[in-house]
Structure formats: structure tokens, C-alpha cells
Design brief:
By secondary structure, the chain is of the alpha/beta class. It is about 50% helix and about 15% strand. Helix 8 packs across helix 17, helix 11 packs parallel to helix 12 and helix 19 packs across helix 20. Bound molecules: pyridoxal-5'-phosphate.
Amino acid sequence: MKSRQSWAELYALEVDRAADAPVFRQIYLQLRLAILSGTLRPATKLPSTRELASQLGVSRSAVVSAFEQLLAEGYAFSKKGAGTYIASDLPEPFDAVHGRKKRPASVAKTAASFRELGGFVDVTAQSDERPFNLARTLVDARTVELWRKLSARTLRSFGRHHLGYGDPHGMPELRKSVCDYLQAARGVRCEPEQVVITAGTQQAVDIVIRVMQGPDKEVWIEDPGYSLTRLALVTAGAKVCPIPVDQHGVNVTEGIRRAPKARAVFITPSHQFPKGVALSMARRLELLAWARESGAFIVEDDYASEFRYGGRPLASLQGLDEAERVIYIGTLNKALFPGLRLGYAVLPPSLVRAFVTARYLMDRQPSSLCQEVVAAFMAEGHFAAHIRRMRELYRSQRDTLVAALRHRLGDHLTVDPPDQGMHLVAYTRPGLSDVGIEQAALQQGVVVRAMSRLYVQAPAQSALMLGFSGYPHQVIAPAIARLARAFER
Ligand SMILES: Cc1ncc(COP(=O)(O)O)c(C=O)c1O
């Protein structure tokens, strides 16, 4: 009730003394409109007549008259000794008085282009608790404890540098730690000046799109590929050119044939999303040579590279780039947890200023407090240890999931444990539709994403994508039993 009261105190009433309508009527009409439109909600306490009169610089009797009219018409009620409140049972609905507001055509059109994206937003927000949603992480007790300690330490020092505007590149200490980590773990060639802290991959992709200028530019995307990159490009008006992916990654020769003058290429070379293959060395070199000659940029989304379980690790594509054509994007939202909303981009020196300017215009800078906690977590060695522990945990969850799938659904699905990442791909036997299973599984409270949905032009393969990182062992077997029921249907 307290907070409701404060909203009414802040409501921006205006009185125009030069207007023909008397002051009391102006106050009455504005409050009535705010009540009917739901701006001020039922049960909200109105400010006292004395407070409101002094706030508006009018006589108290004018405010009293306005309130009396609201009370008489049933828009408000008074509680003895406790003030005046907005009624729950309003005398007339808003639509009856003002008609439903029509949105202008251009607004309606823009909204329509985003409407098809609604499904993603809902799936992401609503199914956190449902196995086997993608990209979820587990954070163990050790990391939770450390996070609490470091957050408390940061808050205790709560100083000027936390309170004001900070560096839009991101905090220098964090950029230095990210730079050291990427050099050591991913073979990225960079200086801290090239590292910009972002809110994660999604923001980095969005900034790159802005920096590329000319939204009508042609860009390659992987087919199948990461929907959120494709949709960010499509909604920005870019001309996306889907390039097929095979067991060696994106088909570079085909990309050059289809769109030789493309401005940029958005790819996941270490662990292609969703198929999980790595871009072969021959194709890496071919792509870099083409980018060098054509002047295109390669946007390398190196998501989930922290979680490698076997096989020969492939360093980043950026590390092979001699011509400053690669924009490297990484995220802490997977290495740590998605709610963190921190990531980074490593830019060719010539792009740093444009990228930071675009970022500044978007949301100025990352949160100072969050950055400081992560910077300490990295500098004090906890990040590397966290990755090591999580890698073991995710590996064992992956193995449990693969075993359960083979045991319960081996007749319907073919699954190999992936070498890297946080999800696996289970191919359906001929005749089964991944979309149908996805729907039936949802009825059983299990999220398995149909891979065929991620294809744009290439002939779609039917497979299910299951995230294994976010769901502990004890959850896996019962969820697979429910998934098996979906197959029976
Ligand atoms: C291909 C790919 N890149 C990046 C990300 C991470 O995105 P963000 O940092 O915006 O959470 C994801 C998460 O699902 C992903 O699947």
C-alpha cells in the first residue's frame, strides 16, 4: 500500500491558470483520466489535499472540491482518518469514455514484424525450470559463496567510481583479465584496448550491425544457425544470405559463390550452432583470405568455448587473422550464468571507436557493480577454477543424458556426445518429425527444440536439441521417461 501511495504523490498533475476551466475542474479531470486509464490503480492512496495544494501552488479549497467530485461520482472513497483512495469498482470503463485508442499504421506495422519473435521470448522466459532448455547453467555452492563474498566486499567499498558514469569500454581491470584469459585459453591476439565489455553476445551482435552501417548490406549467416543473430539482422533490415553447413562447418566456397560482396559473415566456427561441428582449418584459411581481399568482416561468435570435453581444441579464428578482419564475440553469460548479462567483444583496432560510440548511444556502459564483482572473480583465480569444475559437471551430465537417451529412445534417436558446448543434437529416425515431438514433449513438461526450425533454405534435418548444462543428474532420467511418453503418442 505504501508504494501505491507514493505513485500518486509523483503523478504529474498540471494546472493552467490562464485556461478557461476552473482550477478545481482541471484537477478533477486529470485525476479522473488517470484513474480510468489505469495510470493510477484502484486502492492507490491519493495525496492529502494539503500536500497536493502546496505541490500545485493552488488553494486547498480547489483540491477539496476536485476530491469531493471524485468521491461523489464513485471514482474514489475515503477512509475515516486514513485519507482518500481510488475505488476498485469504477463507475464506467475507460473504453466507454474514450474509445479504444488506435495505434497509428506505422507503429502497427513495426509491431507486426516483431510479433513472429514473440515465441522466442516466451520460451526463454517461461521454461527455465523445464529440462532440457538450452543455454542454462548450473552454479555450484562454491561459486555462490564466492559471489556473495565478492559482492559484499564490492558493496562495502561502495565508492564514487560506482556511483557515476564510467568508461563505456568497460572497467579497465575487467578488460585486462578478459584479454589475458582469451590470449591463454583461446589464442586470441589482442591488447586490453581492443576489448569492450558488453551485456553479452546479443548486444555485441546488435552493436556490430549498427557499426556496419547501411542496413541493406548483404551478410552471410549459417544455415542452420543461431536464430537470435538471424532475427537481429532481419529486423535491422540486413539482407541475410543463408549459407549451408556440412560436417566441416559453413561452406565457404558456396558463400563466396552466392554473395561474394557480402559486408560481413556471422559464424560460430568453434562449435557450430546448432550442429556442433568445427569449421575445418582449410575453410578457416579460405574464409580469412576472402575477407582480406573483399574487405568483409567476420563476426566470430565463440559461445560456450569454455566447455570443451575432449578432442583437439581449436583456437579461435581471430588468432589466425593477419588482416584485422575478425570481430571476436564472447559471453560470460554462459561461462557463469545467463542472468549476469556481461560479455565482451575483441575488435580490430580500426573499429574500436565506432563500436564504443554505438555502445555508448545504446546504453552508455555496463553496470559498475557487476563488472567489479566479475573482475575480482577473474583476477583472484576463481573464474578458471569455476570453469574447471563446471566442465566436469557438464561433462558428466552430458554422459548421463546420452546414456538415458540411448537406453530409452535408442530406437528413435541417434545421439553422439558432443566434444564441446552445453547442448547435444539427437537425430530422429526417418519418418519422425522433430517439430511433432517438440510439441508432444512440451505437453509432458519437457523442452526439446526441433532443429529443423533453424534452417532457412538448406534442406532441413530432423533432430532434437537438448541442453544438458542446466539440469542435474537426478532430473535427467525422469525427464527422459516423460520424453519417451511423447514418442509413444
Ligand atoms: C550461438 C549462441 N551464441 C551466444 C549465446 C549467448 O548469448 P548471450 O550472451 O546474449 O546470453 C547463445 C546462447 O544461447 C548462443 O546459443
